[in-house]
Structure formats: structure tokens, C-alpha cells
Design a protein that fits this description.
It contains five helices and four strands. 26% of the residues are buried. The two termini are 30 Å apart. The chain is mainly alpha-helical and 157 residues long. A two-stranded antiparallel ribbon has the order 1-2. A two-stranded antiparallel ribbon has the order 3-4.
């Protein structure tokens, strides 16, 4: 899959809470997984390829990249909560840090997913408002035009 965002851009856009995260923590496969699960069903393959070819830079920078970065963090965050190695799985605990409990990790994940969905909804709204100028966008391909979830309520169009 053609990449439209770098690992460093994901870190800059999605980890803005002041904590250092090395770009190497984000794998290209993480970006691909987030793209296929949450972004392509909205933008469609044809528009994705147009953006990857350098078209629609404003749309990519203002809407697509922030949404993709946020969903990529949702993919990566559970791995950041633990340490894996040859000895298996461990919780990071040091003399100055204590691993967050399950409740705190759950709250963080819910907040991250809510933020990512809000950014994706903004991206979709932008596409709908500018469909005439973005010829590769097909509103019929956008899954959010057929089904949306609002606070546990599923709306099918």
C-alpha cells in the first residue's frame, strides 16, 4: 500500500501529550492496518491513490493525516502499555514510574478512539462538502454515508 504519512508524522500528530515516543515504535504495518480498517472505507481506494500521488495536499494535511495518525495510535497504544522481549510480556515499572492500572488504560483507549472517530467524521464531512472538487471521491463508497453510530445508537441510511 502506498504511504501518505511517515512514522514521524504519526508521532507528531497523534502523540501530542508531551511524552516522547520514538518514530520507530510505529511500524509501517501499523499504519497500513489503520488505513485499511478505518480510512479506506471512507475515502475509497481511488482517492487514496490520488492523495498518495500528491493530489489534494490540503485535504491530506488537514483531514486525512490527522485521522490516520489518530487511528494508528489506537493500533499501537496497547503495545506501548507493555514491554515484550525474549522473556515474554511485562508491565513497565521503574523507580520513578508505575504502570497504569486497567481502568486508566481503558479510559485512555476510549478517549483515543473518540478523538480518532471525531477526526474521521470531520474528514468525511469535508469530503461531502467538497465532493465536486475531489473527482476521485465517490460518496457511495463512503461507509459513513450508509451507517453511523451515535453513542450506542446505530443509524442506517
Amino acid at each position: 500500500m502506498k504511504q501518505i504519512i511517515t512514522q514521524a508524522e504519526v508521532v507528531a500528530l497523534a502523540f501530542s501529550d508531551g511524552e516522547y515516543v520514538a518514530p520507530e515504535v510505529i511500524a509501517v504495518a501499523d499504519i497500513d492496518a489503520a488505513t485499511k480498517r478505518w480510512i479506506l472505507p471512507v475515502v475509497g481506494q481511488v482517492l487514496w491513490e490520488a492523495v498518495a500521488a500528491g493530489r489534494y495536499k490540503e485535504f491530506a494535511d488537514e483531514y486525512l493525516k490527522p485521522a490516520l495518525a489518530a487511528f494508528t495510535r489506537c493500533v499501537v497504544q496497547p503495545r506501548l502499555n507493555v514491554v515484550t522481549g525474549q522473556a515474554g510480556l511485562a508491565m513497565p515499572v521503574g523507580s520513578y514510574h508505575k504502570a497504569a492500572d486497567e481502568q486508566a488504560r481503558g479510559e485512555l483507549m476510549r478517549a483515543l478512539v473518540a478523538r480518532a472517530k471525531a477526526l474521521r467524521d470531520s474528514m468525511s464531512d469535508y469530503l461531502e462538502s467538497n465532493a465536486a472538487e475531489i473527482v476521485e471521491y465517490d460518496p457511495k463508497q463512503n461507509v459513513l454515508n450508509r451507517c453511523r453510530c451515535y453513542g450506542g445508537i446505530v443509524q442506517i441510511h
